[in-house]
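Incident log, structure service

09:12 report received: a user says their structure output differs between two submissions of the same chain.
09:20 pulled the input from the user's history:
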Amino acid sequence: MFRLSSRLIGAALATLLAVSGAMAAERKAFDAADFAAAQARGERILIDISAPWCPTCRAQKPIIEGLADAPENADLVIYDVDFDSMKDVVRGFGARMQSTLIAFMGDTETARSVGDTNPASIAALIASSRSN
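09:34 re-ran on a clean worker, output below:
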């Protein structure tokens, strides 16, 4: 009986983990056409402008990843913009620094921050993209 219960619990946990992984926000490299299409569909979007050498960006990554895994953010699309190699895109967003986060609901910018590593305020920035 104990072995059967352990197997059932293990199977249930594996299923739960698989399902929760499927519920994570989608992260992708920035592509202008894809971004425009996501905006036209009214999707929730987070633009993450970062650089690999930036300590603030490195501090933001685990916070963003944790929030991306939250069920309430399963419909969020996160676009990575490389500060060093995508200067035209960075300028297009009006960003002046790496570690810039910009939230959108469709084509409407809902919040922006620069250099923020506070989990609560990053969560609030992401939450601003929800329609209420």
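09:41 both user submissions now match this output. Likely a transient worker issue. Closing.
09:42 reviewer note: Residues 1-21 have pLDDT under 50 and may be disordered. The first helix runs from residue 2 to 22.
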